[in-house]
């Protein structure tokens, strides 16, 4: 589910559900949240490098499980779940380097709002599929993406639910570097190790100084997004999207 390895003060976290393109079910949300919390407290870890195993970085929330959550009131949620993972990302005090090795949807794209350095394979693609699922943005993306890429690029990414290529992601500033697939992890690791050679206390102080002014905006955006998501999830458009996914057909939002 999640591979963890340490080398030269860099902790590499590898999402490991390749059969599901590393889609997040409740168990993976819990595992990654726990891993970030542990890395934050470990004095031997200076930097976290996050990537995925297989063809995908992350296909976002597992839609089959999302369908169960939306339709089964007895479904047992995780200890952290999606909100707890975002809490861990918001609070993570050390540099976070993300290497997008394949497709990134939903949280597989919006997590870049919390990356201190983001690398992307030239063959990878990103998508924020919220409107195609009949729901609202997540993970403070409605606040972080406009700051990261500008209002119009953020509007296109969040409103259209269209794919964004690696070249487009780099041009708009969503990722820092684009690499050939075989070069992605070595290049991301090389930069992570440069950071990891610095004093941890100094890395933490720099990141705190950069992120502290954003905290109020992140908190307010999450509150707005969560309210909108709760209102829309399980509604007609969302159920049509989830049923269409489960049935292997295109969703029909005519009249919605």
UniProtKB/TrEMBL annotation:
Gene Ontology molecular functions: delta(3)-delta(2)-enoyl-CoA isomerase activity
Superkingdom of source: Bacteria
Pfam family, one: ECH_1
Major subcellular site: other
Name of the molecule in the record: Enoyl-CoA hydratase/isomerase family protein
Compartments in which it is found: Peroxisome
Keywords per UniProt: Isomerase, Peroxisome
Isomerase listed as a keyword: yes
Phylogenetic lineage: Bacteria, Bacillati, Actinomycetota, Actinomycetes, Propionibacteriales
């Amino acid at each position: 589910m999640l591979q963890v390895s340490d080398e030269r003060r860099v902790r590499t976290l590898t999402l490991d559900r390749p059969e599901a393109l590393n889609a997040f079910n409740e168990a993976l949300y819990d595992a990654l949240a726990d891993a970030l919390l542990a890395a934050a407290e470990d004095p031997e870890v200076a930097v976290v490098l996050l990537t995925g195993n297989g063809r995908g970085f992350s296909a976002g929330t597992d839609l089959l499980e999302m369908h169960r959550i939306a339709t089964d009131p007895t479904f047992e949620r995780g200890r952290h779940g999606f909100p707890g993972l975002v809490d861990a990302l918001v609070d993570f005090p050390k540099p976070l380097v993300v290497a997008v090795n394949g497709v990134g949807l939903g949280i597989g794209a919006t997590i870049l709002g919390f990356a201190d350095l983001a690398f992307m394979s030239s063959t990878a693609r990103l998508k924020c599929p919220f409107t195609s699922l009949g729901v609202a943005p997540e993970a403070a993306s409605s606040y972080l993406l406009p700051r990261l890429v500008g209002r119009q690029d953020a509007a296109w990414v969040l409103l259209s639910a269209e794919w964004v290529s690696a070249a487009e992601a780099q041009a708009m500033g969503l990722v820092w570097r684009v690499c050939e697939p075989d070069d992605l992890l070595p290049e991301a690791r090389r930069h992570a190790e440069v950071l990891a050679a610095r004093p941890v206390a100094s890395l933490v102080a720099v990141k705190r100084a950069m992120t502290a002014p954003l905290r109020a905006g992140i908190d307010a955006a999450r509150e707005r997004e969560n309210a909108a998501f709760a209102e829309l999830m399980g509604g007609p458009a969302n159920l049509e999207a989830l049923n269409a996914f489960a049935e292997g057909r295109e969703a029909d939002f005519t009249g919605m």
